[in-house]
Specification:
Layout lengths: L7 E6 L3 H13 L4 E6 L21 E5 L10 H4 L5 H6 L12 E3 H22 L2 E5 L4 E7 L4 E6 L4 E4 L1 E4 L16 E2 L15 E5 L3 H13 L1 E5 L5 E5 L7 E6 L24 H9 L7 H16 L1 H7 L4 H13 L3 H18 L4 H14 L7 H18 L5 H12 L3 E5 L5 E4 L5 E6 L5 E6 L1 E4 L14 H5 L5 E5 L3 H9 L5 E3 L5 E8 L6 E3 L5 E7 L14 H16 L2
Helix pairs in contact: 1-4, 1-16, 5-13, 7-8, 7-11, 9-12, 10-13
Length: 572
């Protein structure tokens, strides 16, 4: 795999969905001078963490339907006919009644992705594109060699390989801090097989996201059973040995995520992402910054104006914070489970009529569209995103599957599931005797402290700090640098620094910066080094490592869109 003058050797770190979209782009380029090596720490391609046993059990389902999946080799509706009958029977799927608007069990969807990767490997072979797949090849370190124009890959087994281009597509990463040291304490619900146990006490679920729902779906099945009453409504009963089993979600705002509805644009407005020319023009007029309010107007209000004039008339003069206050206020005024039932009914009508709920869809489009230019926000605007906009986006565009919503309502009606708002100042301390002690201020302003024998942290994929990056040579040699955003108003930065905000720093020239999660990248997902120069050899597509400059990411859509930018730069 040593580099030559005629061949470009590309290494892809990871073999999940992001790697698959990148590989698909390489095949479409039909460049016969490219050699590709894929390093996969497991023994299969395509599924990644979310769609394999590392992230799912039989009870877990996708939150996207077939029509929302970016184009691969075959569609889900065509592929479903090739699945063995015993597998379809296991998941109660009839291909005659299946359509592109249905969600799939995650493990079954993982089989689909694995098959798509196999077909892509076959296409590459037919086109004469050389591909090597290394299974069970976890990558321990990456060493950049600028003089040689290459990057050294070092596997955990100590093997060393060289590539002119490296794309880090390692996917989700769930660091363990207390798990394994403290009994009954889980730093994440993954792999979900670790939650397949019976308990006869309360379980604390930190968070109320899709990650929390994954834990709820697993724990509920091992401590009771679902059934239907005479009217066909889903019910839940705990097993006798789990009669005291109960799950309590600890949510910052006490809100549940919204339910899946029909999307008019099933691929979340990929065409609405601001062009580089437009971004450059707006930045030039705003001292180098891209204003959040410009993106909010362009990628949210304009779509509302076109699709829902009545709603637009209601919000047209609102700033971002005013809109968020309106929407969050409407949610906070209602009981979380009553709202879940109402949103389930609304989403059910939306799907049946195939009519979108436009403000929710446009919020998803805003989230997707602002992801790429967010690196040009001022520090002040990024603070607004983090504090105000993202809490609403994370709730509305979670797209909870219908079956999950029904199960949560059944669990709540059975007295087994509840949610409490704990505010931003809540703390979690691992307990010496197992589990965790949670301290929070309730809605009446009273401080509460409670110990849970079992605690599951379900706040979702964390945006990892710079120090969490596992490739230490890239950090030590300053190939990677921490992501940071400049304050547009020095006084604001100075005030934040004076208040002791540990995320705010001042450089030698006197400018103030907000340190955000992960590493710095450019528009092509190339690493930006300690001297603010791009690195044409190292590309980063692993979302946990770029969360500062990409505050939200949209799963498969993110991988498909990011891969286009990476390949264009990689083969330039």
């Amino acid at each position: 795999m040593n580099s030559t003058q005629t061949n470009l050797n590309i290494g892809i770190i990871g073999g999940g969905p992001s790697a698959m979209f990148l590989y698909k782009r390489l095949i479409e380029a039909s460049d016969h001078t490219v050699n590709i090596t894929i390093y996969e720490k497991g023994n299969r391609l395509g599924a990644g963490m979310p769609y394999s046993a590392a992230g799912a059990n039989d009870e877990h389902v996708t939150n996207v339907s077939g029509n929302e999946i970016p184009e691969l080799v075959t569609s889900v509706s065509d592929w479903i006919w090739t699945v063995p009958k015993d597998t379809l029977d296991k998941y109660k799927i009839d291909p005659e009644r299946f359509n592109e608007y249905k969600v799939l069990p995650r493990l079954l969807f993982g089989q689909y992705l694995t098959e798509q990767f196999r077909l892509l490997l076959q296409q590459a072979k037919e086109k004469g594109i050389n591909t090597i797949v290394k299974f069970n090849a976890a990558v321990a370190d990456l060493v950049d060699d600028p003089a040689g124009g290459r990057v050294q890959v070092i596997t955990s087994a100590g093997d060393k390989f060289y590539h002119e281009r490296i794309a880090i597509c390692s996917g989700h990463y769930w660091p363990k801090k207390n798990e394994g040291k403290v009994a009954g304490y889980f730093d994440s619900p993954y792999p979900p097989s670790k939650l397949t146990f019976k308990v006869d006490h309360e379980v604390a679920i930190r968070g109320s996201s899709l990650t929390a729902i994954d834990a709820i779906r697993t724990l509920s099945r091992y401590n009771g059973s679902f059934d239907k009453d005479a009217e066909g409504n889903l019910t839940y009963s705990a097993y006798p040995e789990s009669k005291n089993f109960r799950m309590v979600m600890h949510s910052r705002n006490g809100l549940l995520p919204a339910v899946r509805f029909h999307l008019e644009d099933s691929h979340l407005g990929k065409d609405t992402v601001l062009s580089r020319d437009e971004i450059a023009r707006v930045r030039e007029a705003n001292n180098g910054f891209l204003p959040l309010d410009y993106v909010f107007d362009k990628n949210f209000k304009d779509g509302i104006k076109e699709n829902d004039p009545d709603f637009y008339h209601r919000i047209k003069d609102m700033q971002t914070e005013e809109f968020v206050d309106l929407m969050m206020g409407m949610r906070e005024e209602r009981d979380a489970f009553e709202l879940l039932q109402a949103e389930y009914d609304e989403a059910d009508r939306s799907i049946e009529k195939r009519e979108s709920i436009y403000w929710k869809e446009m919020l998803g489009i805003l989230s997707f569209a602002m992801n790429y230019p967010a690196k040009y926000f001022s520090a002040e605007d990024m603070q607004r995103v983090q504090k105000t906009l993202m809490p609403l986006i994370s709730i509305v565009i979670a797209y909870v599957p219908q079956s999950s919503a029904i199960e949560m309502l059944a669990l709540h009606n059975a007295g087994v599931l509840d949610i409490i708002a704990v505010g931003e100042d809540s703390t979690v301390e691992p307990a010496d005797d197992g589990g965790a002690t949670v301290t929070y201020t309730d809605k009446d302003g009273e401080q509460k402290t409670k110990h849970y024998q079992t605690f599951v942290d379900c706040i979702g994929q964390p945006h990892l700090s710079f120090s969490d990056i596992p490739y230490k040579s890239l950090i030590d040699n300053r190939v990677l640098t921490p992501a940071k955003l400049k304050f547009s108003d020095p006084k604001a930065g100075q005030q934040a620094l004076a208040k002791g905000d540990g995320k705010v720093t001042q450089d030698a020239s006197g400018d103030f910066y907000l340190n955000v999660a992960g590493v710095a990248i450019n528009d092509d997902f190339q690493a930006v080094d300690g001297y603010s120069a791009l690195n044409e050899r190292v590309y980063i597509m692993a979302v946990p490592y770029i969360g500062g400059f990409n505050p939200d990411y949209s799963g498969l859509d993110f991988g498909e869109a990011a891969s286009a930018l990476i390949i264009k730069a990689m083969l330039r």
